[in-house]
Amino acid sequence: MTARTAAPSKVRQSSPWPIYLTIGLVSTMWAIPAIGLLINSFREPRSIRASGWWTVFGHLFDSTAWTLGNYTRVLDEGFGNAFANTLAVSIPSVVIPITIAAFAAYAFAWMDFPGRSWLFALVVGLMVVPLQMALIPILRIYTTIGVTGTYPAVWLAHAGFGLPLAVYLLRNYMGSLPSSIIESASIDGADHFAIFWRLIVPLSVPVLASFAIFQFLWVWNDYLVALVFLGIEPNVRVVTVELADLAGRGEGALNLMPAAAFVSMILPLAVFFGLQRFFVRGMTAGSVKG
Amino acid sequence: MTTPPMLKEEIAPGAGGGSPVGPDASKGVLAWLIRITSALILPIVIAVFFFAFGFLKRDDVSKSVQVLVAVVVGIVGVWAMYWGMDRLINLLPDSLGASVRPFVFVGPAMVILSFYLIYPAVNTTIISFKDGRSQNWIGLDNYTRIFTESQYLISIRNSLIWVIVVPVLAVGIGLAFATMADKISARSESVSKSVIFLPMAISFVGASVVWTFVYSFRPEGFGNQIGLLNALGGVAGMSPVNWLAQKPWNNLMLMVILVWLQTGFSMVILSSAIKGVPDVLLEAARIDGATEWEAFWKVVFPSILSTIVVVWTTVLITVWKVFDIVWVMTGGRDGTQVVAQQMVQEFFTNRNNGVGAALAVLLFVAVLPILVINIRRFRAEEAVR
Questions:
Q1: Is residue A194 in some structural domain?
Q2: How far is B297 from chain A (nearest CA, A)?
Q3: pTM of the model
């Protein structure tokens, strides 16, 4: 965590060892399930079924116990394809709402029009509408016009569900930029479009990045929207659908589940830890407000 | 923050000009027609582009081409359309143009929101008063069913237990952890916080797979236990337990998974709130002889209370809508159903739109108070600005 701001006067009282012990214990408890899965993903399929992952500590350096076979099998059996599908779903599902939200946020922050405050209050309200409310009607429309199981159907659905938060976050950020720079730009003859594109968007990069990461993790990890609008056909299905399918096969797929789970996690984990700074900042700004 | 002063459109010279018209040009039916049309053009073009073209149908074109097209359209295309609309507005008389322009900026977002959230919300509410195939009006029958038939009552009861237990544990553990981690060395703090935070990046489905290997169960005599919990139980001399089938404790087993996922979120937000408490206050309390425990409850806790409420609410909303974990782990069997999962079950498996919609409405109505509070708070903030 990089959140540590300079706090030279951090007081450390008495002996901190009970605190270290508790923190260590809780962290270990949190890590163990994931570590177990990681270990299992590198074990021979036979041993995954026959014994618990902790038994490897008895023969850590026995090279015959370890294999990459689960990963190669998982990638061959549809998971490589699902990975590509998920990318195909995620990238546009992040890009489209950001562009549309940025224009709307600018108007809400810096333009005057009838119904401005009313419409923005509506956006604030829409943030908590459960997407379950949208499933049945949208699926019926999609079925009628024959677009279920296509990528654009999912892109636009994700765009719709992500927009309220995007508009809200971006508008709050853009509205807090100093009005003086915008006034001086407009005196210099820049119109709204130029101010938006040359001034506001570059200044809003941090919040755009925060939302992009947030939305990417959301879309990548989503199961419900993909299940409903994209479906379970192997040629389009995403990693979460594929993984849920494996989990549904129970014992039969026990040897593939750990490797599959890690393949599905690798990209969000990389994004998360690589760009954590932006993510934490955006999350804090979005949640601690008020 | 002060009110953003609105730009005087007259300052920005319109490129096109157009014949000067009286100040009334921005009023009247025609002006509104132009505003609404200009708000609609862009979303319609996007929808037609995405849906009407055959090349975006499933197998016609490779995935990478589709993604490339989407990204190009998503950034360049959408941007170009906004730009084109903006140029068109410059051709309008100045005062009319100034009153139309905001609608071009806001319009597409509002149209998409109307289509994907507002219209469906209304439509779902209507469907909830119709029968399973949405053909005949049946009044409140669906609601009578979900509040009388035992399977729905169980899902409602379970959801209520979820929204109490999970936020208490996730926020409680998160707060305790954040407080303690604040008192250890910066390096240990950063490492231990990352461990708690890590599950945030994982999908609910992925987390379910992780915990499958904790709860896994084999009846006695059917081989070694490969689930951690049963193995530990075996060491303690217990016979193996099918954790996900033991009513009512299986619900708690599922809740633990969500606590595992959500604690990191509350911990990080609360941690930054704790660090925001002025050191002066804490030191004053210590000088007055307060113990660390008293200092926490008398100084830190009151200052971060509003953050705790926000975090609590956020976790609560997530928990209320939980679907994936139950769907993947038990499919709602053995008394583990929750409202969101039952809703999908009705909709897809049982093909009963009416009951499904009624459950969706229930999900929505329960968060209405939060919606109202959010809007009120927003209004209050605006009034201060």
A1: yes
A2: 17
A3: 0.87
Residues ≥6 apart with Cβ < 8 Å to B130: B136, B137, B138, B353, B354
Contact between B110 and A104 under an 8 Å Cβ cutoff? The reply is: yes
B4's torsion region: left (phi>0), alpha (psi -120 to 50) or beta?
A: beta
Residue B51, Cβ density class (10 Å: 0-12 exposed, 13-18 middle, ≥19 buried)? middle
Q: Is residue A110 less than 8 Å (CB to CB) from chain B?
A: yes
Distance of CA B249 to the CA centre of its chain: 27
Q: pLDDT tens for residues A277-288?
A: 776 665 655 443
Inter-chain contact A3–B311, Cβ cutoff 8 Å? no
State pLDDT tens for residues B99-117. Answer: 888 888 998 899 999 999 9
Q: Is the pLDDT of residue B174 over 90?
A: yes
Domain around B80:
25-127
Whether A290 shows a pLDDT value over 50: the answer reads: no
CA distance B115 to B124: 13
Q: Is the pLDDT of residue B12 over 50?
A: no
Q: Are B258 and B336 in contact (CB under 8 A)?
A: no
Has residue A89 been placed in a domain?
Answer: yes
Last residue of a domain, one of B127, B162, B188: B127
Closest Cα partner for B299 from B324, B280, B271, B327? Answer: B280
- Both tokens of residue A14? 């008495």
User: Which residues of chain B lie closer than 8 angstroms to A12, CB-CB?
Assistant: 183
- Report the Cα A88 to chain-centroid distance in Å: 15
- Domain that includes residue A37, residue range: 19-44+62-67
Spatial CB neighbours of A234, under 8 Å, sequence gap ≥ 6 = A78, A81
Residues B47 and B77 in one domain: yes
Burial (CB count within 10 angstroms: exposed 0-12, middle 13-18, buried 19+), residue B233? middle
- Mutation to test the A interface, candidates B6, B7, B142, B256, most A Cβ within 10 Å: B7
Shared-domain flag, residues A23 and A93: no
